[in-house]
Specification:
- The chain has 136 residues and is of the alpha/beta class.
- 32% of the residues lie in helices and 12% in strands.
- Strands 1-2-3 form a three-stranded parallel β-sheet.
- Strand 1 (44-49), helix 3 (60-67) and strand 2 form a beta-alpha-beta unit.
- It is globular.
Length: 136
Amino acid sequence: MRLLQAALRASLRKRGIGVFKINSHEYLNFENLLYTLLEHVGVVSYLHLGAHDGKSFSNPLYHFVRQNPTKTSGVMVEPQENIFRMLEKNMGDLPNIRLVRAAIHPTKKQVSIFSLKMGAQVKSDSPVNPLFFGVV
């Protein structure tokens, strides 16, 4: 089994993918994981689907990328035009970050996307958390 693991790691390493084991629950915190990756690999590359505006909801990726702009690269995908404009405002100045306005679906070429109107109110007895949508 160890021989197979070593071969798999070597194969992935040739493709620029690092794999390592994390033994501490401390690293279940996403920001700690990002810094651990940076320490072990030297650069963090990511794909962020549904990036929203890239900053809201205490997004640890935003602060990490801002603090390490030369050691990060990524693709941030957001399909909603008005939200994508906010993403461009928040992340568009970073040269290693590519912003893509698109929806991702495994089989369809076109999809309908529904969203709450900006500033819409959600009933207090609704199962939807209004902070999730950034509307209060």
